[in-house]
Amino acid sequence: MIDFIFNILNFLLVVGTIIYVFYKYLLKNILKAFQEDKANIQLMLDQDKSLAIFKEKLDKSIEQQDITGKNLTLKIERWQSYIEAEKEKKIDEYNKYYSKVKSRLKIQHNNYQNQIIQDQISPELFDSLEYEFHDYFKDQSNTESYFENIFKNKLKFKD
Q1: Which residue range(s) make up the domain with 123?
Q2: How many other CB atoms sit within 10 Å of the CB of residue 142?
Q3: C-alpha 5: how far from its chain's center?
Q4: What's the angle, vertex CA 23, arms to CA 22 and CA 27, rounded to 5?
Q5: Nearest-CA neighbor of 93 among 104, 103, 85?
Q6: What is the 3-state secondary structure (H, E, C) of 84-122?
Q7: Count: domains in the chain
Q8: Chain segment 67-121, per-residue pLDDT in tens
Q9: How far apart are CA 131 and CA 123, in angstroms?
Q10: Contact at 8 Å (CB) between 137 and 143?
């Protein structure tokens, strides 16, 4: 029985020493580790909240930039269509102007060609006509018939 009591005392002494060492040395370190873990967990939760807020802001910014990009794309498309319309309008104006200039140049060219022909033919023609008229009007009857025809034609035009 003494053995049993010494075994229990021995057991209590070992348990007491373990409890003493636990409370004296290990409990402070364990509590300190728990506090650090709790602080780290709180820090991570705060970081998670700030990252969630940052993500929301970033998502909103992306949405706004997407809307802005779509608006800019629409404006660019409108500007391009306006520029194309203006370009076509300018081409049409140029083509109209070019056709007018071309027709004027054609008329001028024809007039110039006619003038050259007249300049070449007129002196010869006038000389020839003068000679023919002179011979034709030498006869008095031809002169009278010529003037009669003129007066008759004039009277026809008045009616």
Answers
A1: 2-158
A2: 13
A3: 101
A4: 80
A5: 85
A6: HHHHHHHHHHHHHHHHHHHHHHHHHHHHHHHHHHHHHHH
A7: 1
A8: 999 999 999 999 999 999 999 999 999 999 999 999 999 999 888 888 887 777 6
A9: 12
A10: yes
